[in-house]
Design goal:
By secondary structure, the protein is an alpha/beta fold. The protein has helices spanning about 25-30, 65-80, 95-105, 115-120, 130-135, 145, 175-180, 190-200, 220-225, 250-265, 275-280, 300-310, 320-325, 360-370, 375-385, 410-420, 425-435, 445-450, 455-460, 475-480, 490-510, 520-530; strands spanning about 1-5, 55-65, 85-90, 110-115, 160-175, 210-215, 295-300, 310-315, 320, 330-335, 345-355, 440-445. It contains 22 helices and twelve strands.
């Protein structure tokens, strides 16, 4: 962990204050009264014309982004709020760092989470519903954030907001397709189009290095599960067919089996640091994205900016563009819809961040959280930082090549500037514009926004075994041809429903945040008692708390 103190300065930005009552449990208050924001005793209650405290205070912000980036953003925030000093820390492990902080009375005012179960179980997040609902910029957020209540966890209360958004992306290497005499797919392709391209681009004529149709970081089954159902069929707002009420893994099962079949049939490139990779390339540590022999990539968004869009320094000191060095020509594609719908949801990594119960200044902490992550002013500062190639981190890496996320705001000025940082030549721009237009309906991986998801994965999904499997887990069983995905659907549905209901009660019932109505608690309890069976349970009650 790295700690730094950044100095304040500059002019005040006006913003209307919304007073929100924060529901604090006695346990949390007893543990954390000495933690959080620092100032001269208790808050004075004095505020300026925009509702921000006039006290000289210190707020702590703990996150995962590049430390140099967070530092520059915090410095800009302090220029707008000269009475606020911000201390920034780059976390290494959320659970370890925050547990230690709570024990040592050093809990931050604002923190970013890599999963939500840990934060909810410990009631580390405060209720920020009033702030978000009354913030005019909320209307400019990507629509699924409000439609699906991302950060509300299927309650009427908001405990977190999406912060670091990195969508799953598909990339196509045009140079490989040219070598194989294959045409580039239409940007509005379908799932079947992608699968056919993967198959067609797998070529082994035994005279040279084999071409693979697919190289992956993100598993296709996760992508399929979000892209499979039409909006009229089932509103999937999370992994494993989750619609806010229950799970339906039939969508996952189709994608899981299809992915396994591709791997077993030899259409998928070997992973780094495997014997199969050494057999293919002669280099055990080779990355498939550097071979120039893979057509389609199921990758993280960061791969383009961090790797393929960078320059490599040669021994003589000269710099060569990465794609030129490895004879690649990368084009972006949206994860294709199974049904062919033009506007559909896209799975992505989406860290959630919130204001902690430890803070004495929840409103000011909310403003800091917003500025550092999704706020329009904060993103304008980010664009300024990213656009300067000389703005590098301590390792000499340009900050735009250090896991730059996508904006969560739909503000036109922000997006125009953001898109300008990507290829603008005539051949590529059309693809990039189309790609970005299709990134506006994100759905986070399950561990970010579904209560009990990690518990379901750890205690059921990743613990299943089969004779001969290399290691436990349903993915491994199916990938190794030792079972069929469809055979797990019924039991997995029950287990997913059970764990979700169990932890909704634990996190939000009377022993947790206490924001579920008696009817909601009873409904979830009936699912737990039935072992996850939904038949006869009835419709989910509408909460009134």
């Amino acid at each position: 962990m790295i700690n730094i103190l950044i100095k304040k300065g500059g002019s005040m930005k006006k913003y209307k204050r919304i007073i929100a009552g924060l529901l604090m449990s006695a346990t949390v208050l007893a543990q954390l009264t000495a933690c959080g924001s620092k100032g001269a005793g208790a808050p004075s209650g004095e505020v300026d014309e925009s509702g921000v405290t006039t006290d000289n205070i210190t707020l702590s912000y703990w996150g995962y982004e590049d430390l140099d980036l967070m530092t520059q953003l915090a410095e800009s925030f302090m220029q707008d709020h000269p009475n606020i000093t911000v201390e920034v820390k780059q976390m290494t492990d959320m659970s370890t760092d925050l547990t230690a902080a709570a024990s040592n009375n050093e809990f931050p005012d604002v923190f970013i989470a890599t999963d939500s179960d840990t934060s909810l179980a410990n009631q580390w997040w405060a209720d920020i519903t009033e702030y978000v609902d009354n913030d005019p910029e909320t209307a400019k957020l990507m629509p699924t954030i409000q439609e699906y209540g991302i950060g509300k966890f299927d309650t009427n209360h908001r405990y977190a907001m999406p912060t670091w958004y990195q969508p799953c992306a598909i990339f196509v290497d045009k140079n490989v397709l040219d070598k194989l005499n294959l045409s580039m797919p239409d940007p509005d392709w379908t799932w079947d189009d992608m699968i056919k391209l993967i198959q067609d681009a797998t070529v082994d004529d035994r005279t040279g290095m084999k071409y693979y149709g697919l190289g992956y970081y993100n598993r296709l089954d996760s992508l399929y599960g979000i892209s499979a159902a039409t909006s009229s069929e089932r509103t999937i707002k999370g992994e494993f067919g989750f619609d806010g009420t229950d799970f339906d893994l039939q969508y996952w099962a189709v994608g899981e089996q299809q992915f396994s079949d591709l791997k077993l049939a030899g259409y998928v490139a070997p992973q780094q640091n495997t014997q199969a990779m050494e057999d293919w390339t002669g280099d055990y540590g080779m990355y498939f994205g550097s071979t120039g022999h893979v057509a389609v990539f199921s990758e993280g968004w960061w791969t383009f900016q961090n790797i393929w869009n960078t320059y490599v320094t040669q021994e003589d000191g000269s710099k060569v563009y990465y794609q030129d060095l490895y004879d690649m020509d990368i084009y972006p594609y949206v994860t294709p819809s199974v049904s062919g719908e033009k506007e559909h949801n896209v799975l992505g990594n989406m860290y959630l961040g919130g204001v902690s119960y430890a803070t004495k200044y929840p409103y000011e902490s909310y403003l800091l959280l917003k500025y550092m992550n999704w706020g329009i002013d904060g993103w304008k500062k980010r664009i300024e930082i990213y656009s300067d190639e000389n703005n590098v981190n301590s390792s000499g890496v340009p900050l735009k090549a250090a896991n730059m996320p996508m904006p969560l705001t739909t503000d036109e000025e922000v997006w125009t500037a953001y898109k300008a940082m990507f290829p603008q030549d005539a051949e590529h721009k059309e693809y990039w514009d189309k790609f970005f237009d299709n990134m506006k309906r994100p759905v986070p991986y399950g561990w970010y926004n579904i209560a009990g998801y990690w518990n379901f994965c750890d205690q059921y999904f990743n613990s299943q075994t089969a004779p001969g499997v290399s290691s436990a887990g349903i993915h491994n069983i199916i990938d190794e041809g030792l079972g069929k995905a469809a055979d797990y659907v019924e039991e997995a549905n029950l287990q997913a429903n059970y764990y979700h209901a169990l932890y909704m009660i634990s996190y939000f019932g009377k022993d947790g945040y206490n924001v579920l109505s008696d009817d909601e608690v009873a409904w979830y309890q009936s699912i737990v008692d039935a072992g996850g069976v939904m038949t006869g349970i009835g419709e989910k009650p509408v909460g009134d708390k």
